[in-house]
Write a structure and sequence with these properties.
Blueprint (H helix, E strand, L loop, with lengths): L9 E16 L4 E17 L3 E5 L6 H8 L7 E6 L2 E2 L5 H8 L2 E4 L13 H11 L5 H14 L16 H13 L5 E5 L7 H18 L2 E6 L2 H7 L2 E6 L2 E7 H6 L4 H8 L50 E4 L2 E3 L6
Parallel strand pairs: 3-8, 3-9, 6-7, 7-8
Antiparallel strand pairs: 1-2, 1-4, 4-5, 9-10, 10-12, 11-12
Helix pairs in contact: 3-4, 3-5, 5-6
Length: 328
């Protein structure tokens, strides 16, 4: 089990998590196949830590985030939050934990009700969890807008009256409304312009320090992840390929998939020489993933044994693990 580099004990401990989706078809709508979205994933997140979860589309990143929050139900495995396995909790018990765990969605427009003013959007979360009375909630909503850099003049506007960056700030304010300890940030800047991405990343970094938040930061852009994460988990087709402290991963990537991702990160220095690793073929279907190492069909150093063995995460150094039988 790979452990966190957190400041204290882990607030989140995910063990052997699996999430499969049934594929139905035919006249009787029977289950005809299964999508292996997440396969036997284990990791921890320390208190106050920001863990980046990266990989191509279809790697299972968002499914992991949604399953941790019980927005999707796990097929099997354990999700321990602050020492309690929340997988088996009923609705009433789960509500208490929902206050401590929140999510920032990828699309800030789709995640906001277009018919509700921002005053109502932010007030819903407070009312649902019984935080404050009606007068107190008004003050809290104003304070939330201020925390994310928005004016109280925006309270009576609708979502379509804001820019993408402003809408995402509102989404962040909604996540903060119930004073959570842990936030899943599901690609929170991927739908934003590059110039706005930096502002939102800096805001999240500032809020993390101010409120001692713990974040699972999901992204496909390694350049974004580098600036906010303490540790990075690299996913491919539902499995973890590599885990390492951010500085270690970006300076000494080990897994061939990580190296390929790193080679695709743009370098602002146009004079710097960079050997691009081009992966052949497309990512396989999660309905029928390859045997053994799921990356072997695109791996430039694959050997025959890669089809026979599911490589375990091997420790390379402090906090650094790689799932490759050719790891040295």
């Amino acid at each position: 089990m790979m452990t966190s580099s957190g400041l204290a004990g882990p607030i989140l401990d995910v063990r052997n998590l699996k999430k499969y989706f049934p594929v139905r078809g035919g006249v009787l709508n029977r289950v005809v196949n299964t999508v292996h979205a997440v396969s036997d994933v284990s990791f921890t997140v320390g208190r106050g830590e920001v863990v980046g979860l990266v990989g191509e589309s279809g790697s299972g990143k968002t499914t992991i985030g949604r399953t941790i929050l019980r927005l999707e139900e796990a097929t099997s495995g354990a999700i321990n939050f602050d020492g309690y396995d929340i997988v088996g909790l009923g609705k009433s018990e789960l509500r208490r934990y929902r206050k401590r765990m929140q999510i920032i969605f990828q699309d800030p427009f789709a995640s906001l009700n277009p018919r509700e003013k921002i005053r109502t959007v932010l007030g819903h979360a407070l009312a649902l969890h019984g935080i404050g009375d009606r007068n107190d909630r008004e003050d809290r909503v104003l304070a939330l807008l201020g925390q994310v850099g928005l004016s109280g003049d925006y309270l009576d506007r609708f979502p379509h009256e804001f820019s993408g960056g402003q809408r995402q700030r509102i989404g962040i304010a909604r996540a903060l409304a119930v004073e959570p300890e842990f936030i899943v940030a599901d690609e929170p800047v991927s739908a934003l312009d590059v110039s706005i991405q930096a502002q939102v990343i800096n805001l999240l970094d500032d809020l993390k320090e101010r409120f001692n938040l713990t974040l699972l930061f999901i992204a496909h852009d390694l350049a974004v992840v580098e600036h906010i994460s303490d540790r990075v988990i690299v996913m491919y087709l539902g499995r973890i390929m590599e885990v390492a402290p951010t500085r270690t991963l970006y300076s000494m990537p080990n897994h061939p998939y990580t190296k390929a991702l790193m080679s695709a990160v743009p370098n602002p220095d146009v004079t710097a020489r960079k050997d691009r690793i081009i992966l052949k073929g497309d990512i396989p279907s999660p309905i029928n993933p390859p045997s053994g190492c799921v990356f072997r069909t695109r791996c430039p150093i694959a050997v025959a044994d890669c089809a026979k063995v599911v490589p375990p995460l091997k420790m390379l150094g402090e906090g650094h693990y790689s799932a490759c039988i050719r790891t040295t």
